[in-house]
Amino acid sequence: MSVFKKLAGDTALYGVSTILGRMLNYALVPLHTYVFRRPGELSSNVEFYSYVAVLLVLYTLGLETAFFRFAARKPEDRPKVFSETLSIVLAISLVATTALILLAPQITQWLGYPGQELFVIWVALIVAIDAIMAIPFARLRVENKTKRFVKARLLNIFIVVGLNVFFLLFCRDIYNGKYLTSLQPVIRLIYYPEIGPGYIFLANLLANATYFVLLRDAFSGFRFRLNWPEARVLLLYAFPLMLTSLAGLVNNVTDRLALRHWLPESFYPHLTNKDVLGIYGNCYKLSVFMALAIQSFKFAADPFFFSQAEDKNAPDLLARVTKWFVIVCVLIWVGVSLNLDVLGLFLSPAYRQGLDVVPLLLLGNLFLGIYYNIAFWFKLSDKTAYGTFITVIGAIVTVVLNMTLIPVMGYMGCAVAFLVSSVIMTVICYFQGEKHYPVPYDIKSALGYIGSAGLLIYLAWQIQIENIWISLPYHMLLFLLYIGVMLVVERKTFQPVWVKLSGRLRKGEKGLGQNV
């Protein structure tokens, strides 16, 4: 139980930065959608940030996980492994970022965003900084410096949010003469309306640059070294993981990269394809509630399960962790899907027509989270090639279904493709894992919770209530009832907790009575 509590505690700490970060970034969605009222204005942000995720995987080559593996295996070699992995990433970042900056004009023409060369340069620098910082952040996780990790992430988040508000609200309003007109000469030196949504990239870039100051001591002991025999060992382990991550990203971002290009013109009346991408991309951000739970869990789980790899009880622990992971994610799926009428108010009205995709995207992310859990079998057994095989299949399914469904179903086809691909990956991973690293997963429990939650969401959506003051308590009641049923089903699990808690309360009351 102690190791289980440690994982839960680390997940909670990492979750502070992940959840708060995603929540604050989501809080920027109203700012972005109300400032840029035409959805097409944000289409380049949606598309460029999708490429950021892909490029980051190519820059890091899976070396973050390789560092976990080899640093945990031989702690005495940790400084040498740190220098080697960071040196590789630095070399790749320098070469790739220089190439992107030089090719910025051609890239903008190819993507259909002429005149946005500066955005491409900022994006290239954002990726470079994120890639370089990935290894120091991994070092903090391996050394259990969770609070340092969380503090740096949180400061970065607040800077990003602050700069977004500064550029897009404060500077914009002063420039337009809404207030503090005496500051206009100063503001005109730093604010240019033609940059528009580009300030979102600039805010991100400036905030990320502060990592070098916030985590300067995380680079202690670093020496640039590229020893080919040592680098080769790291790369041989990491390369299949990189391909796995890349294929997984194809699964995640194909919809936003392909929607504008594969959607027939005028599929949605009165909307351009850039408008459609802007709508889908910003509604997609509502699935962040599931993604943040998965991400915060992954931050804690990677080093945790590697450290438990030799424990004979590891399979049972993984099964219990996965069961409760599914329960938490199902609750997120139900809670968000039932309250989209409220959450949709954070979007400008022009963007709300895409809210129907959110439940499917949440469910797709739920299955992807399950996949990440059960995928530990090939990491712990050093059979990482299986991960590549499974995610490549998922990527192929995603691409084929997007190509097939987008012309027929529009952005709903993107959500269906993502869900189907995630389910297929999870099923394949489970059956392969049972052959090589058997784990006693509670399949009946997982399917029961997912099926019952899906039925509840479907039935609730059949009753449309226009008045938000009625719909909100109605949907919250349904959510609380679902939680109540879940507590009854899991009463045997919770019973020891209730007994322990009741005992503490009785002791407290007894002590209070004696004092009186």
UniProtKB/TrEMBL annotation:
Record keywords: Cell membrane, Membrane, Transmembrane, Transmembrane helix
Principal place of residence: membrane
Membrane topology annotation: Multi-pass membrane protein
Keyword Ion transport (UniProt): no
Annotated InterPro entries: Poly_Biosynth_Transport (IPR050833)
Entry keyword annotation includes Transcription: no
Compartments, record wording: Cell membrane
Membrane-traversing stretches: 12-36, 48-68, 88-107, 119-142, 154-175, 195-214, 234-254, 279-300, 321-340, 360-378, 385-403, 409-431, 443-461, 467-489
Name listed for the protein in its UniProt record: Oligosaccharide flippase family protein
Provenance organism: Nibrella saemangeumensis
